[in-house]
Amino acid sequence: MKKIIAAFDGLKFSESTKKYALKLANESDSLLTGIFLDDFTYHSYKLFDLVGSQGISPEKVKQLMDKDAQTRKQAVLNFKQSCKTAQLRHIIHHDKGIAIQELLRESIYSDLLIIASNETLTHYKEELPTAFIRDLLTDVQCPVLLVPTVYKNPKKIVLLYDGSPSSVYTVKIFSYILPWLKDLPVEVVSVKPTNEQRSLPENKLIKEFISCHYPKARYILLEGDPEVEILNYLKNKRNELVALGAYHRSMISRWFKESIADLLMKNTQLPLFIAHYR
Fold it and tell me: Span 3-147: which CATH code?
């Protein structure tokens, strides 16, 4: 049995996160924990919303705070009812401290974190990747599944491989946490610079390793600039789930650096499985 956590902003509840979490928890018979990040510094309203003709209005403050509390309550009820309907073991956590700190702490004690790639935990709209997601991916202590705004049941798995320990580790962890996905078509995608020999890095070893987990995997070897070729290959895909290596800023990798994850978040609507290699 695994522990999957799904992180929610109760003021802007993500149906997509809920649907991915329900699907994965059901398939893996996991305990699903809904993390509601009720950060005490975060509200749906702005400062000028509190000001009336006589300055800051206590009545208006109470009205807006009550509205936020009700919105958060409805989000929790939505999640609870969906878990009960799906007959899933579930727990609710209300984390009222600083959202990023609370979620990083929760990740230490979890097998997988599911969160929407556009989460901001502010009332401002941000370009992807948001500041919250950047900070999360830098220091998170478990694998993360970043999900798009619309749920789509994955029909193919794409494993990005560059020969680094990080990319191999991701395949390993992905297969351990989501083993039932081995029955889907699997592609191992790599990129070689134009002037290099056209073969996978550590060709014999990686194929031997992959065959143990995904014996029917296809190997796709692209040529050119990795950032350009990976994006071109994936930008028109619709039902793939992509696994890629560590996001951590201190890690050194030939091409699985944060810009690859950033590009995929900005230019695709695909779920991204990201794991750290330390």
Answer: 3.40.50.620
